[in-house]
Amino acid sequence: MTIIDPATKSTDIRLRAVRTACTGHAYRTPIKFGGVAVDHATVLDVECEAVTRRGQTVRGFGSMPLANIWSFPSRVLNHDQTLHAMRTLAERFARVCQGFTEFGHPIELGLALEEQFLAAAAEVSRELQLSQPIPKLCTLVCGSAFDAALHDAFGKVHGLNCYHTYGPEFVNRDLGEWLGADYAGEWPDAYVLREPKARMPLYHLIGALDPLDDSELMKPAGDGLPDTLPQWIRFNGLNHLKIKLNGDDLVWDLERILKVDRVTSETQRELGVGTWHYSLDFNERCPHVEYLTEMLSKLRERAPAGFDRVQYVEQPTARDLRSQPHNRMHEAAKLKPVVIDESLTDLESLLLARDMGYTGAALKACKGQSQSLLMAAAAQKLGMFLCVQDLTCPGASLIHSAGLAAHVPGVAAIESNSRQYCPAANIAWAAEFPGIFKIHDGTMDTSCLSGPGLGAIPI
Questions:
Q1: CA distance 11 to 333
Q2: What H or E segment, with its residue span, contains residue 41?
Q3: Going along 215-269, which residue ranges are E strands?
Q4: Which of 195, 185, 181, 177 minimizes the C-alpha distance to 370?
Q5: 118-143 pLDDT tens trace
Q6: Are the CB atoms for 142 and 41 separated by under 8 Å?
Q7: pLDDT class for 459, splitting at 50, 70, 90?
Q8: 51: β partners
Q9: How far is it, in rounded angstroms, from Cα 111 to Cα 88?
Q10: Fold held by 13-190
């Protein structure tokens, strides 16, 4: 197939204007994350105006929570300081975009902007005199809404869902450009579905502070939504449960899983449900890999059926893989798939994790649509287990995350934590997209994610 020269491809776009806004949302109940209780979210919205080589103009929209507790953890900076750094970073990224005049496909533009965003993050760190520089993961989270707006605009200007625009008729360079010679002659569309999966099982989050039953319920939220695990299972018909664990107290973690399994088993038995699944999330707090292998071994001894229900384990130890070469996951991965999450920021980190025994990868829209597409391709070619997680994304950011999950082969389930912790942020979207925001049978109706741009976000 003859590929049109990048300099003359008429479908290319460039940015012409960018506007940003931040909104705050209080959580109905707090979630304990990495040892910290979080009770609110700040969401970054980005609207871009783009133009094609032919002069057609279009607006694109992207949105993502500024999850500083997750993307910028710090022992020397407090919550307000890291959040301020991220808000400052978003403003700086808007200025970078205003001065970015290159034409291209959104993947090409997104990856080129990522380089400039990383340089801008270093500048902001110096200007704010931060005692800890802004991490790469934090930079990706801030940049993801800008990247999403580009993909959204590109699809809309061509009247296509963005997952129809990742082949050689639109993308100027093959995957070999970014992933190496093994991918030469391959295009991103080979690793995504043109049409979304119609329905996907929903992973419900069980936070470390969430009451499992009435004995743990100290104060009902009083808003008509469930408070305990059995209530949630009945309310949404759940059969996939993600269990947040402490990672620094093996007895507590093991007993937490065992109680989740007991409470869930009793409820599912009453409902006549025979099959369900768990994922285990330690938020990288395990001191060493032996903690994980011991915990899994004890779980298998104490509750064999509960052990069998564990589908995968999210990154158990610290995200800086190079500083912890001893924490290799080969033995743990013989028990269950072990997924790289916080560490995954590029191809180099994916390959390092694989060498260290990780057998799966967690894709997240908050790391950028462009980067996620590359990681989806690389992980599939390497035969790794894949999942998509949503960072408690509300509104448009959930639609973006759900679209990623629904279009990547091999991703078996989807996350939607905002319905639990900040449902008020979804109200404006729920009436128009009920399949995404209203769960009745343990699954999300993702068939609607086929509209122009990122799927269901209004033109």
A1: 44
A2: strand 36-52
A3: 240-244
A4: 177
A5: 999 999 999 999 999 999 999 999 99
A6: no
A7: very low
A8: 14, 57
A9: 21
A10: Enolase-like; domain 1 (3.30.390)
pLDDT in tens, 337-370: 999 999 999 999 999 999 999 999 999 999 999 9
Amino acid identity of residue 335, one-letter, is L
Q: Give the relative orientation of helices 136-157 and 106-127 as an angle to the nearest 10 degrees.
A: 150
CA dist list (Å): 53 to 5, 14, 105, 121: 13, 8, 11, 30
The CATH number of 193-445 is 3.20.20.120
Euclidean distance between CA atoms 43 and 62, whole angstroms:
10
Q: Is the pLDDT of residue 5 over 60?
A: no
The CA distance from 416 to 205, in Å, is: 8
Domain with CATH 3.30.390.10 in the chain: 13-190
Alpha-carbon gap, residue 194 to 182, rounded angstroms: 23
Eight-class DSSP state of 263: H
**Residue of 95, 138, 199, 182 whose CA lies nearest to 411:** 199
Report the mean per-residue pLDDT for the chain. Answer: 95
375-377-379-383 Cα dihedral, nearest 10 degrees: 180
